[in-house]
Amino acid sequence: MTKLWPFRRRGPQDEPATAPPPEIVEGIEAALAGTKKTFFRRIADLLGRPSLDSQVLGEVEELLVGADVGVATTERILEGMGRRLAEGDARDYRDALAKELLALLPTDGAGLLWGGNTPPEPPRPAVILMVGVNGTGKTTSIAKLAHSFRSQGQRVLLAAADTFRAAAIDQLELWGDRVGAPVIAHKPGADPGAVVYDALAAARAREVDVVIIDTAGRLHTKFNLMEELRKVHRVIQRQDTTAPHEVLLVMDATTGQNGLYQARAFTEAVGVTGIFLAKLDGTAKGGIVFAIGAELRLPVRFIGTGEGLADIAPFGPQEFVEALLS
Question: Residues of 43-75 as b/e, b for ≥16 C-beta within 10 angstroms?
Fold first, then answer.
């Protein structure tokens, strides 16, 4: 199966990694414009001073917390910076910060599907389960993924397993028509597990490459809704014991520290394999990425860089940190 993106990072047995296309780097930089202007550029400026005192470092700490990095993660970053400088592992404070931020971000599977805990080439059909709370941009993110696969010649099928809202089914069908991906749907109120069962059967019959499953936006604090999601997960595994091959949590970059609680709850429920960070272009923060990396070691697979179908970029930890501090 063709990779979703034409480049990957250097690994133990990989060829040297190629640079990401310029348009991807530009998309990341554009999406981070607000975050850079409000927080990280100010941090970089502070750390670039010829001498630093406790007051300046206190300002840096406040800016990191304000950028949604979180108190615990911020303390970890500052301690790590001091350690790197003392051990000669960094040229200056800015270099120490860059290295600490990068160390928080998992690189295994970042920006690439089928990485980390799954084989490089998943069986056909590959199954992606999309989860998240209401309002995160989950359906739009599904459409972006489907469009990306379709643009590389992959056959894609969408499953409308959000049966709680009739509008959700209609919305997914509209996106399916737009990107050229058929949608398997039942009537509103139907059993989501039955939708998934039929979708996987249809995918096998039609020799589909990728199945992307939409699910109802669930508040991570609602026990019954999370149990329903676990049921959908079990239905998938009964059809293919290796599936789902990706469980992507769509997270709104503007959600703040609540995103950490969401990520923890969904990971416990259905084994999240990666993050799709949506609406990054709509926030002046974005530091939640580092908190999730530090606490849960979940890789960010992709980021949303705008509202269009093509506004999606693979997440590159190095490029992300460099863009923040440039």
Answer: bbebbeeeeeeeeebeebbebbbebbbbeebbe
Structure tokens at 236: 């998938």
Helix count and strand count (H, E) for the chain: 13, 8
What global pTM score does this model have?
0.88
Residue 211: its H or E element: strand 210-215
Q: Which domain holds residue 142?
A: 126-315
15 domain-assigned: no
User: Which token pair is 131?
Assistant: 């989860």
Count structural domains, the chain.
2
* pLDDT, tens digit, 9 for 90 and up, residues 196-252: 999 999 999 999 999 999 998 876 567 777 888 999 999 999 999 999 999 999 988
Residues 282 and 210 in one domain: yes
- Crossing angle (nearest 10°) for helices 54-66 and 71-86: 140
Last residue of a domain, one of 70, 104, 138: 104
Structure token pair of residue 40 = 């990280």
CB 309 within 8 A of CB 145: no
If you ran DSSP here, which 8-state letter would residue 153 be given? T
Each residue's pLDDT tens digit, 120-171: 566 789 999 999 988 888 999 999 999 999 998 999 999 999 998 888 999 9
Residues 86, 211, single domain; the answer is: no
Rounded (5°) CA angle 304-306-310: 80
